[in-house]
Specification:
Length: 244
């Protein structure tokens, strides 16, 4: 992917056709990475692209909000060492932890990938600590959501080695609001600003979302009549830890 606009026809890649650039192939090799039935699963080819560019064979890759385990599967395919945490682990190789308090030593990982909840758009678990329960467009102006994400990024910074990279995959959000024109939550911009407090910005990639809602006539009609837009892209915010 040589430009800052990324598009791919499917959620997953075929590992048989995507050997690593450094010639390293992993041990796993099934046809799917993570679980496409998991609501909110990250398209695995995005993580594949990132690991090719920002990591080397046997590097340690952390995903502190690992969901269905997509990052771990891409790591296995590419011969990287994946470490996954989640409040609600969906499989045995994901460890239970709050991303705001990781049981890892300082400067112990070579790359961090995070696909966080984008406000309250998905019900991930009943755990009261789930950041997906915090409303980025709520009456508090999203303060609790952004404060929680600041702590997640603080942990990522702590455990990342110097001169190594972090990628955050995130979308803005828009919600209908009774009696008003709706609430727009510029989550991508807000998280970029928070990340910038510690990390050095590297780039922003725009990832095309094939919004299935567009195929449904009622959503298309609602968007036109209600004068709002359905989300057409996600941000991939790229940062580097650089202490000197
Ligand atoms: C968008 S999903 C991640 C999807 C994942 N990358 C995949 O491909 O399946 C966000 C995840 O964040 C987790 N999460 C929410 N709050 C958390 C917290 N405080 N600590 C750790 N994980 C959290 C949710 O349980 C959910 O699995």
């Amino acid at each position: 992917m040589p430009t800052t606009l990324w598009e791919y026809p499917s959620q997953h890649y075929d590992p048989a056709r995507t050997a690593g650039r450094d010639g390293v192939t992993g041990s796993r090799g099934p046809k799917m990475q993570g679980r496409s039935s998991y609501t909110g699963a990250t398209p695995s080819w995005i993580i594949w692209q990132l690991l090719q560019r920002y990591t080397r064979a046997r590097d340690t890759v952390l995903d502190p909000m690992c969901g269905s385990g997509t990052t771990l599967d891409v790591c296995a395919d590419l011969g990287r060492i994946g470490i996954g945490f989640d409040l609600a682990p969906s499989r045995e190789d994901i460890q239970p932890a709050d991303a705001r308090d990781l049981p890892l030593a300082d400067a112990s990982v070579d790359f961090v990938f995070i696909d966080p909840p984008y406000s309250t758009h998905v019900d991930y678990s009943d755990d009261p600590r789930c950041i997906g329960r915090l409303d980025a467009g709520g009456d508090d102006g999203g303060k609790a959501y952004y404060a929680a994400m600041r702590r997640v990024f603080g942990q990522a910074y702590r455990v990342l080695r110097d001169r190594r990279y972090l990628a955050v995959y995130v979308s803005d959000s828009w919600r209908k609001h009774k009696g008003s024109t709706g609430v727009f939550m510029p989550i991508g911009f807000e998280l970029f600003a928070i990340l910038r407090e510690k990390f050095k910005p590297v780039d922003i990639v725009c990832v095309v979302r094939h919004n299935k809602k567009l195929d449904l006539g009622n959503w298309r009609k609602a968007a036109e009549e209600g004068n709002f837009f359905l989300r057409g892209f996600n941000y991939l915010l790229l940062f580097k830890k650089q202490t000197s």
